[in-house]
Structure formats: C-alpha cells, structure tokens
Amino acid sequence: MTMENKALVCQRDQYPYPADAHYLNCATRAPLSKAVAQAGIDAIQRQLNPMGLTPDDFFSGGVTVRQLFAQLINQPDPERIAIIPSISYGMAVVAQNLPYKPGFRKGQTIVLATGEFPSDVLAWDGVKQEQELTIVTVEMPAQLPAADAWNEAILARITPETALVVVPMIHWMYGTKFDLEAIGERCRAVGAWLAVDGTQSIGAMPFNWQRIRPDALVCAGYKWLMGPYSLGVACFGPAFDGGIPLEEAWMNRLDSNQFHRLAEYQPAYRPGAYRYNMGEHSNFTQMPMLEASLKQLLHYQPDRIQAYCKNLMADALPELVSLGYRIEPESGRGHHLLGVWVPDHADPMAITRALLARNVSVSARGRAIRVSPHVYNSPEDVQALVEALR
C-alpha cells in the first residue's frame, strides 16, 4: 500500500497557527501551511536580487501550476487552464463569450441556485440587460433533506430556452451537494453552457472533468486550494476555444517570451485557454505559493481529505442534532463543509461570536453556522465546538 492509499492522519504540525485555536473555518480562508508560507518567503528573497532573471522565468511558474491543477481535476490538457485573480474575473470571461455561443438567442434564461455567492450572480447583470436574458433562480427546499429535491428542481428548469447554468459542486453556505454529472448531461442535451464555481470544493472533494464535462470551472486559490489570496485558476472547455479574453495581455501572445521581439506585436494567441490569463500572471511571490499548495493537495488527495473530515465529525454530528441543530443527510452533502442549521429561536451571528470567545472559529451563513474542517483539525477541535454549542 502506497502512502497515498493510506488514511490521512492529522497534519496539525504542518500548520503554524496558534496551538490553542480551534480553526474550523477553511471555507472562509485556509491557513497557510509551513511549506506554502516558506515558498512565499523564498520567492520574496529571490526578488531581492533580480540578477539572472530570464524571459522564461515569467512563464515557468504558470506552466507548473496549470499542470498541477489539471492533474487535480482530471483534465488531460493543461493548456485548458488559465491563471485568474478571482471568481468574478473567471465568470466575466463566461459572460463576455456567452452571446457568441452556438444557438444563443436573445431572451433566453440563465439558471442559478438560490443564495449563490455574489460573484456567481452579479457577473450576469451586463449580458442580461444587453441580451434581454431572464435569471431563473431555483429555490432551495424549505425543509431538510434538501439535496435531492433541489437537484430535481434545477434539472426541471433547464430547457431549450436555457443559455447558461451556473451551479457549484456544493452550496457555499450549506454544503448541499449538486449532481453535476446529471446537470451537465442535461445542459448538453438542450445546448446550454455549464459554468461551475469550484471554490468551495476543488481540492477537498474529488472532481472529474472528463465525467462532468463543464464548459467552465472557476476556482479561487485561498480556500480549499490552500494557497494565497488574489490568485486562482480556471479551466475552459472547447466552447471557449478562439473566444474573446477580458484583457489583451502581452504575455498571452505567441513568442511573448522573446523579449527582444515584443515590439513586433504578435497578433496570434498562445494555444488553449492561455488568452484568458490575467495580465502579469507570473506573480513571482504568489505563484510559488500556489504551486506548493497544489503539490500538498495532490499528496493529501481529495478523497482522503473527505474520509478524514467524515471520521473527524462522525461522533459530533449526532450530538449536534440532539441539541436541536439540523444537518443535511450524508448522501446530500460534502464532509468538509457542513451547514449546521440553528434552532429557529437562535441567531447564527450570536452563536459564532460566542464560539469565537471560546477560541472556536466557524462562520455564520444564512440560517446556519458553517463548519468547515480540514486535515489540520483534531478531535479536540471538534470537541471544543460541541462543548461550546452545548
């Protein structure tokens, strides 16, 4: 049995945040590991003396990150990966190109799940007005369990009038799981695009690009990719080949590593999704950090992370239910992000403040507290949560 096939053990010694902190809040921001932090420190040190920097150094970090991310999502072609600064940037690429989708017609619909993250909603304001589109928001069922009924409702709203479906792998507030394979199949049947926000899942849950076959997958880097803020990755399928980028970055053109020829103004783009890279994507400080975090995740492996989080929370969840909290059944959620619905009389914000006073960090989202453990968490962290809620 290889190390990658063995069950993960607690990795707390790799994360140098305070020893007495019970940080169950990776869905807000991941703590940097020693390896990721050191990669950033080393990168800054290298920049103290830029002697010897070559044109190829502007590109090599991005090449490695694209290869690592492609491996993480089972995408066989790393050239389909783009380096982006944020979810809003990646979704703006989708919005920019939507009117050029084959079969697109004015007056079609965009299907969203209710309560989505603002970047997945506001991105469509411009194209909605210009193309007279209608936003169809599929409401979450009022009662738990919600996953099956929610998925069925989304599938029912995807029709030949649908131009685009925007849905995550799991809901960012509640952890409810969406059936991306079924949704993707339905989108292809009616000629709609599928754009997936993977920020709250990629890195912690297995994702298979070749089975789901979305048109776009967009991920921020500072949550479950365990990397720095303001740097992310996106994957664009064949629908975006030859599309319109948001900016005309010089590095995205052919032969742009030949600095002595830059004034020849190459009109052709580098292949694949390279045209969708943000300007100055080299990011000499943060790119090595994202590279280190992706390597660490490929060592952890998302399926092992899920198993670790499942075992970590197994004893606590029945206790929380006994205290009056409600949780989606296991089949309808992930194990790394749990929407713990508070009793009707309780205030989620007040609960999170009380927990923080006991050095337990979670988030308030909607009518739930969002508990998001990772491999640095221990049974002591979970017990601190349960005792504080009790």
UniProtKB/TrEMBL annotation:
Note the Pfam families from the entry. Answer: Aminotran_5 (PF00266)
- Tell me where in this chain the Aminotransferase class V domain is found: 64-385
Would I find Protease among this entry's keywords?
Answer: no
Which ranges does the record mark as transmembrane? none
Superkingdom of this protein's organism: Bacteria
GO molecular function: any one?
A: transaminase activity
Q: Which UniProt keywords apply?
A: Aminotransferase, Pyridoxal phosphate, Transferase
Under InterPro entries, the record lists:
Aminotrans_V_dom, PyrdxlP-dep_Trfase, PyrdxlP-dep_Trfase_major, PyrdxlP-dep_Trfase_small
Q: Which PANTHER family match?
A: BLR3095 PROTEIN, CYSTEINE DESULFURASE
Protein name per UniProt: Aminotransferase class V-fold PLP-dependent enzyme
